[in-house]
Design brief:
The protein is mainly α and about 190 residues long. The chain has twelve helices and no strands.
């Protein structure tokens, strides 16, 4: 129970971009025997600090202690993508999907894995599923645009990027990709604006 509270506290700090505070919480709560929640907490902090190997190992320890923990499976999927282990990511995301079948982050993660595996059709199917879910974040629009671009559907990429920019007007990734797509589509004047 206390370990789950530790996890939630660190998640709050990470959400606020306070990685140092999350690291301090872990350092101040060292234990000889760690629960799955402590391993999960360490994994999240390692991931936020871009220590991917350490994050992966902590996620695996958390998974051994809590084999049906949604956050652990989702985290393992995400770190697996960052380590170019796409089939492994799909395995973890698929199991997480059985626990929360309507979680948009799982669909987005699976779509990213398929995107990196160059299975753009499967990626787009998953991204389209996310558009009908309540939680849409601009990363979805960016991934959809990149996928449309790979499928040589530049007009669709441009439209989806414009939709994303309605949500977050100053997103650098969306703006850069829109300029690139406009250039790909020979709309050079608009890409300069």
């Amino acid at each position: 129970e206390n370990d789950m509270a530790l996890y939630r506290l660190c998640e709050m700090y990470l959400f606020e971009g306070e990685i140092g505070k999350a690291e301090l919480v872990i350092q101040n709560n060292k234990r000889d025997k760690k629960s799955g929640w402590v391993h999960l907490t360490e994994a999240r902090v390692f991931e936020a600090s871009n220590k991917l190997n350490a994050a992966y190992k902590s996620y695996i320890r958390a998974l051994k202690a809590m084999p049906d923990n949604f956050e652990t499976l989702k985290g393992l999927g995400g770190v697996s993508i960052l380590q170019n282990k796409y089939n492994e990511a799909l395995k973890y995301f698929s199991k997480a999907m059985t626990l929360k079948p309507n979680d948009s982050e799982i669909y987005l993660g699976m779509g990213k894995a398929f995107y990196h595996m160059k299975n753009y059709t499967a990626a787009m199917e998953l991204f389209n599923e996310v558009t009908s879910m309540p939680k849409n974040d601009v990363e979805l629009y960016h991934m959809m645009a990149l996928t449309y671009s790979k499928l040589k559907k530049h007009n669709a990429a441009i439209e989806i990027l414009k939709e994303g920019l309605k949500i977050k007007e100053k997103d650098a990734d969306l703006q850069f990709t829109l300029g690139s797509e406009l250039g790909n589509n020979s709309q050079f004047q608009e890409s300069i604006n």
